[in-house]
Amino acid sequence: MRIMGLDVGSKTVGVAISDEMGWTAQGIETIAIDENRNRFGFDRLREIIEEYNVSEIIVGLPKNMNNTIGPRGEASQMFAENLQSTFQIPVKMWDERLSTMAAERVLLEADVSRKKRKKVIDKMAAVMILQGYLDSRQI
């Protein structure tokens, strides 16, 4: 059984999957979505859930720095509720403040070009979200 981590945006969803032991997160892909047209990538997510035998989903919750939840956070919460009702798998929210910034920093330090960073930033943020969750369980 594996855990899936998601970084949900208005145009993409970054996807990460844990190893079977639940120790490490690996980036899988970035799924194009269209929030305005209610296209959330659930068909592709279903394929990934089945392929990796996912037993739990962690969705990044983008809180404001003062710990409040703004429009983006509310959209992520709605996405998580839809996931839970669609797939009948436990879905948890995970504070993702600064995960995208951390992912950007890692990619910059690795000297990844701007064009390539844009393609992988959401997947990398999903890894950061999932790894944070996995690490919290090890304590």
UniProtKB/TrEMBL annotation:
Residue stretches spanning the membrane: none
HAMAP family per record: Nuclease_YqgF
Protein name as annotated: Putative pre-16S rRNA nuclease
Family: Belongs to the YqgF HJR family.
Keywords: Cytoplasm, Hydrolase, Nuclease, Ribosome biogenesis
Compartment(s) of residence: Cytoplasm
Enzyme class, spelled out: hydrolase
NCBIfam families, A to Z: RNAse_H_YqgF (TIGR00250)
Entry EC no(s): 3.1.-.-
Main location: cytoplasm
Organism: Lederbergia graminis
Keyword Cytoplasm: yes
Gene name linked to the record: ruvX
Task performed by this protein: Could be a nuclease involved in processing of the 5'-end of pre-16S rRNA.
SUPFAM superfamilies: Ribonuclease H-like
Residue ranges annotated for the YqgF/RNase H-like domain, each copy included: 1-103
